[in-house]
Structures
1.
Amino acid sequence: MALDSSSTLSDVLAQYNDNLSWEGDVTKAQNCLAAIRWLLVNRPSRMGDEIQQIDYESLAGEKNLLEQYVDAHGVSVGRCAFTEGRMLL
């Protein structure tokens, strides 16, 4: 699911929870990273009730791990901006 300005907190939390096991899967890592970025941008300083709370500082650390993974394993890794073809003789 692509998150956008009309996404709700429930949409974002569902995407985050659906992609918690992102290790080894670039698509899940990208989805999880998008959810974390949305949460960090659209956050109060803390959120929750007496039972559950979200600590945004811990999300920032996970965001850094995800960015490193996506940068290292994403679609654009190892690809050239252009290629040159030569006839084999």
2.
Amino acid sequence: MGRAEDWLEPGERVMFRTGLHPMAFAGVLSLALFVALVVVLLIRHNDLPPATEAQIVLVGVLVVLVGSMPALLRWRHTALLVTDRHLLVRSGTFRQHTLATPLAPGIVEQESGATGRLLDHGTVTVMGPDGQVIGVAHVARARQFVEMARAQARRTATARRSPASS
């Protein structure tokens, strides 16, 4: 799939780039804490030989590692870019979802909950020209991304009207 910058046309400049916020790992953290609790309770409340205890710890670590793979892949494969011409979104874990859409007012929306406003992240929804919609949760600097996309869409619309009126 490559980097998101590989989609740029010649001469196209990136105005703003963001990815996922560390809150995207909240589920992995809760999984790790739960597995650690189970491992500690199994070892503490059972009289097991040291080899068995080591096996329980090893299985717990493996469960956490395997459980964290989707979040790590999503972190690595997600990019949102505002360029001087387009809005580019790439997201997904194993199957990539991509969207490259010309800048226009109303193509991007942002929603933040209580932690989103506090920690500066949110869900960004982008609508493509063909009606395709991609929603990306836990986007870092989501408000800035949406503001930049809307401002760039206004500048692009003004630049398109400007030569026609002269």
3.
Amino acid sequence: MIETSRETLELFVEKAEELKKDYRGVMGVFRNIGEEEWQNYPEIRGFLLTFRLFILRRDGIALYVSEQGLLKRPELLDLPGMSESWHEKVEQAYKWVTNALAIAPPNLVYDGKPITRWEVLETFRYGKFAHIN
């Protein structure tokens, strides 16, 4: 378990750098392959495993905590010992991304109903790359 704000931020930065590297690999996969073929690439699995750290409460670095399909306020937003300016900036970033995930683009439709970006994210989170069923 992480004990200090400093350790939490160090882990966050380390995993964010890892995620950034994985993201580049994933984008390369999408640019260079066919429509269904992307599902076979380990870069997708690696990205999802690292990304899960940012939406699961367990490691203390989550930006968006999802429990039973509901979005919860992450502990990262309330780290003790951080400046008021830091808290304001993190809170604003959280709101921006939360609003972006709430959007249901017109091309994202399932069973005749629009789905949000958050629902797409949840599908990947619980999909075949991370769970058996």
